[in-house]
């Protein structure tokens, strides 16, 4: 029983991480129907950006987490946003009217490029890099369940940011423009919405969330590597699809379900943790086949 | 139509078109005769005595300077001879010249420790690289000045014997080019300049190919070869079988060529799924992996699952069938899932395969230890890994694998070509263009899509079976996501739905890493960048399929029209 509870807690933390990434997927897909494969790499780049920021800090600042941690967030998020904006401007925007497969393949190219760029140019990126210990230490113990404070912070950040995002999209002027563009870009244009600005903003919001996720991932697991983007990106995409692409609430709930499947199936299903990926992919396939609109999505529109 | 922006460019450059082209051509020729480097490299002179002094030995131009000379002459010819769509031709040749000059000048600069190496040092002058670059840029500008017109259309028909002759000569030239491409720069890392020489050669080849395509020759040739497709396949196979007799005929290049052939066959299979039926498959290499694993387990290797070995043809058939069954399973979600969601489903299947194989599922894959020691093939008493003698000619080891693979590729091509022009192929193309319309026309779309997956997977499984014996080891490492992306890139680079395109794409993508060992670290990064650039600038690929081309061109015109309207509004 205590094992199950512990795995459930771990699953919630994993889910919180995946949720932060999944929000970026779901928003971009909602607006321009692009599976932004490179979004996982934005998350990875942010993690390295945060690490680089820490490395560049003067020694006395490194010792005070209260200063170093916020600076790492700023650095990581900044890198993620810059990468996302460049990516949108030079890789995706020219292809906006191209056949459907073209941007998807471009996204694959961007993904490979970013991963390799970090591997080649970041010092020692070929092996796992340790992440600085500036995160809250110790565990929160409830009964037999141990949760690290970093994990708690991750869940709080994830849920909090998702709520803020939901409110922003539902209440603000720009949020309305985003919803309008998602529904019908041409009409939105006629109503005075600049789709380019909306799309860039979508990418920026996605990058900020992925940036937060990138830093927290490093803090939670204590080391990072260049493969983290691809793996977590796929999980996040699965979560976004599971929740219903385009739906903020769906992405978050989907992410928690994926996190729980990963830890619980890794514990109890045959094959153990080595097969936990497989169960996630099985769920992904089943969802796509039997309920492609996801749990909270609108019924499927006709897709080319 | 799309006349707006070209006419704007024309107004500025139009009067300068011909003079620029003439200047570019002349400067190109001069550049070839100028010295290029001011010092001797540690490993000996930069290829082929590029320190020659101006006019010391004007007829002793070799290596990349021969290419520069040729490009210069071609630019001059194209500028003054009546060539269809002259602007395109001059522009392509200009790009070739620029690339060749850039690669060589950059390499010399880097090796020589600064710009002094290509300009002046120790009182000597070596402006070859600079002049070549200027000539190239001038020719590109000249191309825009003359005007970029649509690719030339060659309407005339040939009588059959004449068409055969043209095809023979053209494919012979292809054979020569392939042999040259394989051997330039020498074997592996034996020549310290290999990477640079090869890149320079690629620049030259790209320039010439671009010019041929601009003139309309390539389009005409591909139409011709589709008209006489049986003859074309036979000639191509014959040409390929002649490769061991060229300078590429040693063990090393036979091995490389055989590997390329395996991936080419797989790429053709993928081309059925992606190019014809329009179903994006991101986990395709898994079928090749399944085929390889099946063949490995029936091969009698020490760690094989089955304790007995089957003759290769039987094992290959079983491999193809098993892969085909998995193909049908992976394809079955297509009944309900479309577009990029389908791509994700295939990706998920691919990842499930990798994970399962890594964990030695059912004891079939031996996990991360792989299945080593798969015996080399031996059919009709011939050992495939030994060298081989026909009469007086001794052929290098590995040549039999090469021949087997050429036959495999030829068979795959034949299957592909016949399917493409059959009722099934037309159904696939209809599904690709508009699935709902296809269904309305009475095509059973579900059945057809699963069939596409099944046939594609069978071809991949067959290629995988050969792969297992050829390489002697089968590990899940060879069949990961990146390989799927590389295969997809090969199909797209070559041109979706086009047969020679898939072979060309696979050849380029799998020979490049062999050639660019110097740049090994940057290989994948360049690959990613290349994917982005291809999608941006030439989404139809190098040798586009006729149908595909029509579709893309139309769309491009629509976009141009929209842009035109918007420009008017602004």
What does this structure look like?
The complex is a heterodimer of chains A (304) and B (570). With 304 residues, chain A is mainly α. Chain A has twelve helices and four strands, in the order H-H-H-H-H-E-E-E-H-H-H-H-E-H-H-H. In chain A, helix 1 (2-32) packs antiparallel against helix 9 (195-221) and helix 10 packs parallel to helix 12 (276-290). In chain A, the strands form two sheets. In chain A, strands 1-4 form a two-stranded antiparallel sheet. A two-stranded antiparallel sheet of chain A has the order 2-3. The N and C termini of chain A lie far apart (48 Å). In chain A, a hairpin with a 2-residue loop joins strand 2 (139-142) and strand 3 (145-148). Chain A has one domain (2-225). Chain B has 570 residues and is mainly alpha-helical. Chain B folds into two domains: 3-206, no CATH class; 249-499, ABC transporter involved in vitamin B12 uptake, BtuC (Orthogonal Bundle), CATH 1.10.3470. Helix content of chain B is 66%, strand content 2%. Chain B has helices at 3-13, 17-33, 63-80, 86-112, 128-146, 160-183, 194-215, 217-227, 229-242, 251-276, 285-297, 312-331, 339-358, 399-420, 423-433, 435-440, 445-471, 481-494, 499-515, 523-537, 546-569; strands at residues 120-121, 124-125, 378-379, 382-383, 388-390, 393-395. In chain B, the strands form three sheets. Chain B has a two-stranded antiparallel sheet. A two-stranded antiparallel ribbon of chain B has the order 3-4. In chain B, a hairpin with a 2-residue loop joins strand 1 and strand 2. In chain B, helix 2 (17-33) runs antiparallel to helix 3, helix 9 runs antiparallel to helix 14 (399-420) and helix 10 (251-276) packs antiparallel against helix 17 (445-471). The longest helix of chain B has 27 residues, at 86-112. Chain B starts with a helix and ends with a helix. The model of chain B is unreliable at 1-8, 51-59 and 552-570 (pLDDT under 50). Classes of the chains: A mainly alpha (304), B mainly alpha (570). The interface between A and B is large, with 45 and 47 residues.
